[in-house]
Amino acid sequence: MSEIKNNGQLKENRIIEGYIKLETGLHIGGNKDSLEIGGVDAVVIKDLKTGKPIIPGSSLKGKMRSSLEYLLGLCDRDKKNPDVLHIHASIEPCNDKNCPICVIFGSSKNELSFKTRLIVRDSIALEEESIYTEIKMENALTRVNLSATPRKFERVPAGTTFPLELVYSIYDQNNDRKLFSKVFEALTCIEHSYLGGQGSRGYGKVKFYITKITAYDNAYYKNEGKERVIFENEKGVSPSEVRKKLYS
Ligand SMILES: [Zn+2]
Fold first, then answer.
1. Quick check: 117 and 135 in contact, CB under 8 A?
2. Contacts of 211 by beta carbon, 8 Å cutoff, 6+ apart
3. Of 108, 136, 151, 179, which one is least surrounded by beta carbons within 10 A?
4. What is the C-alpha separation between 203 and 152, in angstroms, rounded?
5. What's the pTM?
6. Can you give the residue ranges of the CRISPR type III-associated protein domain (predicted)?
7. Ligand 1 centroid distance, CA of 73 (Å)
8. Residue 19 to residues 4, 122, 225, Cα–Cα distance (Å)
9. pLDDT tens string 3-33
10. How close is the Cα of 89 to the center of ligand 1, in Å?
11. Ion ligand 1 residue ranges (Cβ < 5 Å)
């Protein structure tokens, strides 16, 4: 039987579940208007309904993207100032149909019109207690006269956990399956870097725990097949462990 060319047919969705645990305080900036605490200079983004802190899917996805760009050396260099790096494919369209960045994260600046393969869900803190954040003072030193300008930062405290849910879609059987491993590489890079702001001051150290990966193929949606559990571990394991298990 000859292989039918894929005209955009969805072959499979893979849902990755787990949780994100904060090892140090996290600051992902929110809208100051929505906060009642007085005198805070930088607030964290929160769910309007529950008041609990959020990790927006866009923040995690953006950090995954930039981590992979650095890992693969695919940032764009500014033409006038080569020391300045830009987001991949933001200056010139990328015409590589197998490009890991454009395929996984999508790109609108391409004739090949890459469809994004990765969805990252918004995540609301799991903690039940009523105190969800802490205020930390940071000193911004003026280089000229070393005068300190104290600023109050709101952070989500270390130990807080958030649910993790990613959806990875497979259209091209070979390339998309191969690139699935990059998702775990990106998450590992974030563990060794940080999430959110003030990372160089120690904020935003996180650990990911993957508990389950389930595959839903094309037949599943037509009630002709069942889902397939690719990976399961109740306690959850690190993304690098998952990568090893899936690709060794
Ligand atoms: Zn690209």
1. no
2. 17, 18, 19, 232, 233, 234, 235, 236
3. 108
4. 14
5. 0.88
6. 20-207
7. 11
8. 38, 12, 28
9. 445 577 899 999 999 999 999 999 888 765 5
10. 6
11. 89, 94, 99, 101-102
Domains of the chain, by residue range, sit at: 18-247
* C-alpha 80: how far from chain center: 30
Q: Count the neighbouring beta carbons within 10 Å of the beta carbon of residue 212.
A: 15
Identify the sign of the CA torsion 142, 59, 124, 203: negative
CA distances from 188 to 31, 42, 48, 72 (A): 29, 28, 30, 14
Chain Cα centroid distance, residue 37: 29
* Ligand 1 geometric centre to CA of 108 (Å): 11
Beta-bridge partner residues of 102:
none
Q: For 160-209, how does the pLDDT look when each residue is reduced to its tens digit (9 = 90+)?
A: 999 999 999 999 888 899 999 999 999 999 999 999 888 888 889 999 99
